[in-house]
Design the sequence.
């Protein structure tokens, strides 16, 4: 019986047959985690053309999406804030179920087939399941290990956002992130020599470096003209930056004005400082309710607690300002409507921000600057101190040193 037909070489050297070794399996890159900037263009990875036996390799590649059950488990945990109470109380209801509790205290349980129920108060027995509400259907692995649900982690490789993977020229893997996509791409790469196959999962982290705003407070002299800030036109990734700017009011002054409008605070002629032993100063609301402010700027509503050790803990915190409002309570009970700009102006031209103080204005302008690279935005508020020229000259040896 003919078993096989080989070449004459096996007759000349039979050891090629009786000492034959298994064919070498294809070997794929050992590095399975790579990083790519979102705007760096396609990532090309050269793969071996042949295996150790000299066999030509062919490749298949697939862009994986996330496990839908893992995504569902994470979403459920985020929505419900499920937690393990220290005991799964398995089989309390007679369905071999395991129990979890939400942040709001509602009880949920998961059955061996992976169905998650919200318990509606039904008693153990034949009507236990039918009296509860199905929330989601997972699989048996979530009953076997409920931590996969109550401690679910974000899942890599979600919607690839238009990203593509392909093999070019027979042995080059090309990964192209979708426009604006940031996150992980999971890729299944399989190599075959016609006999054996080897597969590996690659993770490509597509990154974006957020823009930064490294700005110090500024000082200019009154009447010296506009202040021009020239900021970077691109970020560390080379993304073009877009700026916005506005003059804003002091948030504490705005808060003080809102409190005074809400409460109708008034000075009774005596701050009765330290009556309660906290070095506090007292004000009264329009409705006759007493309030007091402590040295660090915390405003309390007095609830009638006597002076002494429980004085503060027995009162209610209304707002947190700063110590300047305790030093000068009139800033609170006689708060004026905050003005953001006192008719000063700000404009943006590309990557230049121009602040123009109002003629004759001296004081502090609060400048809020926002920058975006098209994917991420950051904001920062700086102070622009507009000083009288006499004060500037008196405080600094040379004007140029302020630039």
Sequence:
């Amino acid at each position: 019986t003919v078993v096989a037909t080989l070449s004459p070489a096996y007759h000349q050297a039979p050891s090629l047959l009786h000492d034959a070794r298994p064919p070498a399996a294809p070997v794929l890159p050992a590095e399975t985690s790579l990083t790519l900037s979102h705007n760096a263009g396609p990532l090309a990875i050269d793969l071996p053309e042949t295996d150790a036996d000299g066999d030509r390799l062919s490749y298949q590649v697939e862009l994986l999406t996330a496990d839908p059950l893992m995504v569902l488990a994470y979403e459920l945990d985020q929505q419900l804030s499920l937690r393990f109470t220290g005991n799964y109380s398995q089989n309390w209801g007679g369905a071999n179920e395991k129990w979890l509790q939400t942040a709001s205290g509602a009880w949920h349980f998961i059955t061996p087939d992976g169905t998650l129920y919200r318990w509606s108060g039904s008693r153990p027995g034949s009507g236990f399941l039918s009296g509860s509400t199905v929330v989601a259907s997972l699989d048996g692995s979530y009953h076997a290990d409920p931590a996969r649900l109550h401690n679910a982690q974000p899942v890599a490789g979600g919607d690839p956002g238009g990203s593509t993977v392909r093999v070019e020229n027979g042995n080059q893997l090309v990964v192209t992130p979708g426009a604006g996509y940031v996150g992980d791409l999971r890729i299944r790469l399989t190599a075959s020599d016609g006999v054996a196959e080897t597969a590996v999962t690659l993770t490509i982290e597509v990154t974006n470096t957020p823009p930064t705003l490294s700005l110090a407070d500024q000082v200019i002299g009154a009447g010296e003209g506009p202040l021009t800030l020239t900021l970077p036109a691109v970020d560390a990734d080379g993304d073009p930056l877009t700026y916005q700017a506005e003059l804003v009011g002091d948030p504490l002054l705005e808060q003080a004005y809102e409190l005074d409008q809400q409460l109708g605070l008034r000075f009774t002629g005596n701050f009765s400082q330290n009556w309660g032993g906290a070095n506090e100063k007292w004000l009264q609301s329009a409705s006759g309710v007493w309030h007091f402010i402590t040295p660090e700027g915390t405003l309390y509503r007095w609830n009638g607690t006597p002076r002494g050790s429980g004085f503060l803990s027995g009162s209610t915190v209304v707002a947190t300002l700063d110590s300047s409002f305790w030093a000068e309570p009139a800033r609170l009970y006689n708060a004026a409507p905050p003005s953001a700009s006192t008719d000063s102006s700000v404009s943006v031209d590309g990557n230049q921000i121009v602040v123009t103080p109002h003629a004759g204005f001296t004081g502090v302008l609060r400048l809020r600057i926002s920058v975006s690279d098209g994917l991420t935005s950051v904001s920062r508020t700086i102070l622009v101190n507009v000083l009288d020229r006499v004060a500037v000259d008196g405080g600094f040896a040379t004007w140029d040193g302020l630039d």
